[in-house]
Each structure stands twice: as C-alpha cells, then as structure tokens.
Amino acid sequence: MASVQQNGQRYGITEPISLGGPTELDVVKTRELEKYLQDVGLYESKEEAVRREEVLGRLDQIVKTWIKTISRGKGLNDQLLHEANAEIFTFGSYRLGVHGPGADIDTLCVGPRHATREGDFFGELQRMLSEMPEVTELHPVPDAHVPLMGFKLNGVSIDLLYAQLPLWVIPKDLDISQDSILQNADEQTVRSLNGCRVTDQILRLVPNIENFRTTLRCMRFWAKRRGVYSNVSGFLGGINWALLVARICQLYPNALPNMLASRFFRVYTQWRWPNPVLLCSMDEGSLGLQVWDPRRNPKDRLHMMPIITPAYPCMNSSYNVSASTLRIMTGEFQRGKDICEAMEANKADWDTLFEPFAFFEAYKNYLQIDISAANVDDLRKWKGWVESRLRQLTLKIERHTYDMLQCHPHPHDFQDASRPLHCSYFMGLQRKQGVPAAEGEPFDIRRTVEEFKHTVNGYMLWIPGMEISVSHIKRRSLPSFVFPGGVRPSHASKGTWDSKRRAEHRVSSTASAATTTTATTTTNEASSESKAGSNSPGDEKKRKRGDDETLADQLRNSKHVAVPVPAENGEGGSPDPSVGSICSSPMKDSYTNGKSDPINTDPQENVVVFNKEDAPESHPIEKIATPQAPTSEETEELEGSFDFGNQVTATATIPPFEATTSNGSPFSNEALEELEVLPMRQPEVTHRASVQQRKPIIKLNFTSLGKTNGK
C-alpha cells in the first residue's frame, strides 16, 4: 500500500503519530471486522441503495417544480422564470457513506432570494408535499434551531432543510464549500448550510475515505451499543463521532480499520479534555461570523469536550456534553482500550467490544421522567421538546450539588405497550466516586426538579394534556417494559467482559480493605518509632507523594487554552508521549466543591435517605454505585440495606409562559438552545422564599454507606 505522504501532503494540524502500514494480521482482522459489521446488518442492500437514489431524484424534481411555481406567482420576468432553479444537497451519514438500512437522508434545498423560508418553503412547498400521495408523515418544524421538514417519500425518511441565498438564480454547479456562499446570508441559512459544508470538508481531510468509513461504522455501532450515541442527551451524535474518527485517520494515515479502532481508544483515553479536537486550523474568516474561540468568548471556556467543526464558521459540535456524560464516555474509552489490548492477546473478540451496556443493572437509584399527551401528534411534539430539555436536568443536578451527584441519562425513551400515549426516560444516579460524605449530608434536588419541570412546561406550544412527572425509583422497582421483551431478568448478566471486571473489582476492593486495616494497625503500633526519625520508608513515600502533588500542581497551573472542568477521581493522568504532541498544553482545573445546605423539609414531605448505620460495612457508596452490576444475590442484599421511605412522584402541569432566550450564541433558540455550565456558586446562607404553590417534591439524601476504621 502506498504511503499517503508520498506526495508531500499532510493531513491535520500535526505530524502523524505513525506512518506504519498494516501487517498481515491487520489485514485479517480488518476483514473479520468488515464481516462482523455486515452480519449485524449495518449495510443496506443494493436494492435499497437504488431506491434511495430514485427518491432523491424525485425530490429534486419536486423542488424544481416548486421554485418555478413561486417564481411565476411573484411575477418574475421570462428570463428569470426560465432560469429559476433550486438544488438538493445531501449531508450527514448518507453523504459520509455510513448510513444503514432504514436510515433517514439529511438533505438541503438551496433556493434563490425570492423564495422565502416562512412563506414559500413552509408555505407552498409544504402544501405541495401534503397533497402528494407518495408523501407521508409530513412534519414541519419551522421554529427549530435549524428549521426543517421531516417526511417520508416513497417510504424513505427525509429531513429537508432550506438555505435562502441572496442570489436571483441558483446555478446548477453551485459550490457551497466556498466561504463566499455565506456572505449576506441570514443566520438560519448559515446553520442550514453548515451540515453540508462540514460533511464535505471531513471527506477532504481524511487520507483514505474507505478506511474512514469502515472505522466510523464500527465506532457508531459501538457507541450505540454502549449507550453513548445521542447528542441531545449530552453524549455525542453522528457528526461528533465522525470528527473524532477523522482525527484518528489523520494520525495513522496508513492504518487499516482494525488498527484505527484500537488507536481510537488509545488516543482518546489519554486525551486531556478540554483540549479541542481539530481536523484543521481554525479560520477566522472575513465575514465577521463568530467562531469557537475560548480566548475571546467566555462561553466557549465552559465547554467540556470541544470537538470543532472544520468548515467556517468553526463551532464546537459537542457543546451539550456535561461533566457526567464526559465521565461516562471517558470510562467507555478506557474499557474499549482494555478490550482492544485483550484482543491483541487473543483474550477477547469483536463480540466483547460490542457488548451492550447493561444500563438497568448499573445503578441502584434512578430518576424516572414520565410524559404524556392527549393524542399521538401532541405526544410527538411534546417528546421532541422534553428530549431537548432533559440535559438541563443533568446540568442542573450537577451544578446544584457541585458535581457530587452524578447523572447518567439513558439516550432513548421507553414506552409501555399498555399506555400508548405515555413514554418514560431514565437517569442513573450515584455519588461521585472517591468523595466521602459527611454524616447526614444530603443532596437536596427538590428545587432542581421543580425548576426543570417549570422550564419544560414553558413550552411555547404547550396545550392541556401535556404532562410530565419525575419520580425516584430503586433498581428492583424498575418497570418491566424497560427490559427486552418486557421480561425482567432473573439475575444480573454473567460471563460478559463487564461482569468479569466487576468480579475482579470486588476482589481488589476486598484485598485493598484488608491491606488498609493491616497498615493501620501496624502504623498505630509503630507510632512512637515514626516520631523518632525522619528517614523511615513512610517518610520516603510522603516525599514521593509530595513530589507527585507538586508536579500535578505545575501541570494544573500551566498556561493553556482550555475550559475549567471539575476533576473526576482517577482521571486526568499524564498522556502518552505519542499523544502529547497532538493536543495543546494539558489543563485540569478543579472547582472547590462547596457543601450545599439542605433546604428545610417538613416531616410530612417525602424524603429519600441513605442510612449510614444500616449499610453493609464493606460497601461504601463509592464502591457499590459504580456503573457496574453486582450479582443478583448482592443486589437484594444491598438494596435491602437502604431506607428509601416512600417513593415520590412529583407531577405538575403548569400553564405555558413566554420563554425568552438571552443566549447570543449561534446555537441559541427555543428548541435546541445551548446550556451554559455556569461556574460553581457558593452555597446561599439566607433562607429561600417558599414556593408560592406547593407541589410534591423530591429530596435525595445520599450519605456514605461505609464505616471507616476506628469509627
């Protein structure tokens, strides 16, 4: 295989980590991977591919007929009427070539200056589509962050965006990759064009498109299986994964997909977030559009996992990521790295890597968010709005508990077949690992939940019947409809990679506890000897620990262009030397986490309390609440140790209010506004005014479940 560097071209902002080509084993492993992806149904049939092309051809005919119709209706002269034209472009997974069977096609219609978005696109074109028998499930969303019309054309799902250019005539060979296309364009047009421009730029910036496509299919499938594929939930969406994979392709330009998948986990396990991922240098442009720049834009400094789009204006495509979702994805990267290393030693296979994440075995406590509406159409609208707001709940809980209470949102909704106009969302809850809780210290999220519900019920299109409720549930109380086939498993998963790691973790924790006990006893017995001299092994360890802390402080205080991210326990190690050159100076600022004073609670109010005294001595919450599932026997033993009180269901229907957005970023709007992760506030010492209208509320009191030595 010829080196991609032989013509002197370099991909990316740095030199590659390796120019090494594939070995014979890499060729064999890549064939196995491709066959695996085919066997699990990630590739569409030739017949479906042909049908998609026919549908796109039909859509092109429709928009050309539409533009002629509105041009004639507006009295354009014969020449402009003859030249009137609109063009269709594709983007997203279809344009990248990684779509699967049944996937929708992201399309963009580019029209001239006299074809308006409000009156013509969502007017005449919408009317034409509604009258066509081959068009079904037409759903216009004119108020979205990026306005679009969703529908099915001959059974193929289409998402159609519109860009109105300040041109009287749209040429048939229009090149939308040129920055000049954005000149004098309105903000919605710039956002609509961005998808196509970014997709095309990605394909230009990878050294081998076929290797990129296979690797991206692999990583998209892995992300979906592990529950980290969802932009709206605070994880990563299709464009984010494409950018991450493209960067790996740049760093290993001659590698095959087998090696690229392995290097993906190796690199991003050691990546020092919030250093940004860039495919090319950022161009500030000459049109005055705002680009991602934490040096100038304070809001950009708050982004946790910047993944920057390569087309002007460069934006952070992953602004929804929170501290909790970043922690979850970092853990998944580490798991992928470990499995790929095991695969190299023939101790694991592709099935191991793609094992589904057992979300409903991973936590002991969950929040259940239930929504309902009066009819199917209202429920569809209500779901779209609630899903766009759910990440607010995650961010608010993190912010109000100073990142001590961590949330893991499930990326999908669940529906009970017996309740067709209802659906449910779930979030796993756990205390931040490694942080002991003071006696009686509560996590009070009552006001947080009320604020969230108030925000959700501020939906501009709210109508009676749209309701939302939030409740706390234990793992053993999860509804059966969340499990495959509606059947609750009789025991936790066994024989999987995750279950083996859990067993090893329990053994390690037990051994660590025994070692700690022995060390404590020895230290107490030899306390007088410790005071006698300064050259003991213990002092040497202290000096070494001090040196490590000094080094950590130097790294923390180093100059950087990054954002402050709350440090997670056990994360943020020094990067591999091979990775150090591909991102900017490391940074790991930590907030000083204050302790929130609980809001006074009436005895009659429902309270969820974790009792320290009743907990098993060997299972502190930072151990048993990790995203790992104990055996079924341990599950019943541990859950029986809690005093949860009464289960809370907080239901409220609040009349809509006029919601305004002060966010000036290019992402701000009603449906998909960017949520700022505000700096941590100090706890308020004054009593808050009571809520004017009292409602059922939730209070979660998480206290340490373990007893330390000597207490």
Q: What is the CA-based Rg, rounded?
A: 28 Å
Lateral arrangement of strands in the main beta sheet: 1-2-5-4-3
Number of strands: 12
Mean pLDDT across residues = 75
Shape: globular
Secondary structure tally, helices: 20
Textual characterization of the structure:
InterPro entries: NT_sf, NuclTrfase_I-like_C, PolA_pol_cen_dom, PolA_pol_NTPase, PolA_pol_RNA-bd_dom, PolyA_polymerase. This is Poly(A) polymerase. With 711 residues, the chain is an alpha+beta fold. It is 38% helix and 10% strand. It has helices spanning 24-39, 46-73, 78-83, 92-96, 117-130, 187-205, 209-225, 238-251, 257-270, 323-344, 350-353, 359-362, 376-400, 446-456, 497-525, 527-532, 537-556, 577-580, 621-624, 632-639, and strands spanning 87-91, 105-111, 135-141, 148-153, 156-164, 365-372, 405-409, 422-431, 467-474, 608-609, 649-652, 700-701. It has a five-stranded mixed β-sheet with strand order 1-2-5-4-3, sandwiched between helices. It has a five-stranded antiparallel β-sheet with strand order 7-8-6-9-11. A two-stranded parallel sheet has the order 10-12. A hairpin with a 2-residue loop joins strand 4 and strand 5.
Topology:
Layout: H1 24-39, H2 46-73, H3 78-83, E1 87-91, H4 92-96, E2 105-111, H5 117-130, E3 135-141, E4 148-153, E5 156-164, H6 187-205, H7 209-225, H8 238-251, H9 257-270, H10 323-344, H11 350-353, H12 359-362, E6 365-372, H13 376-400, E7 405-409, E8 422-431, H14 446-456, E9 467-474, H15 497-525, H16 527-532, H17 537-556, H18 577-580, E10 608-609, H19 621-624, H20 632-639, E11 649-652, E12 700-701
Parallel strand pairs: 2-5, 10-12
Antiparallel strand pairs: 1-2, 3-4, 4-5, 6-8, 6-9, 7-8, 9-11
Helix pairs in contact: 2-5, 7-8, 7-9, 8-9, 9-10, 13-14
